Amino acid sequence: MNKTAILEAIVDALRAEFDTLQSTSQKTRAAGNDAESKAEGKYDTRSTEDNYLADRLARQAHAAAQAAAAYEKFAIPAFGPETPIDLGALVQLALPDETRWFFLGPAGGGIEVICDVNPITVLTPESPLGRQLMGLKTGDSTATPKAKVRSVE
Questions:
Q1: Helix or strand or coil: residue 104?
Q2: For residues 96-109, average pLDDT
């Protein structure tokens, strides 16, 4: 599979996530500061809640932008069957009832992209599965979930 295309798809997904979060944050902030949302009593906290939500969405948007920047600077390493899994590895795992592709990246864990009609899930070394995969080679197995490394690219 073409890892350059995978990285581009990840960056595109992160940029789209950033745009959505930033737009939602701005709309939520505007709603929270609108004259019509002024508190009607001491227990009416809609405006405050809207502003807290807008802050959280803005932080998530910033994290998506930082993740996209990390991938834009990321150098794609080459892997062979005997190379231990590390950042930049594209790993095919044989799970009990299916085979799945995972990309071990520096950020953006949980994002799923499609490349060559294959869904690829981004993992980070901080995730439980990502932590288990680090250092494994083709033919090795993970404990939870029970899976076997079929290939490393």
A1: strand
A2: 95
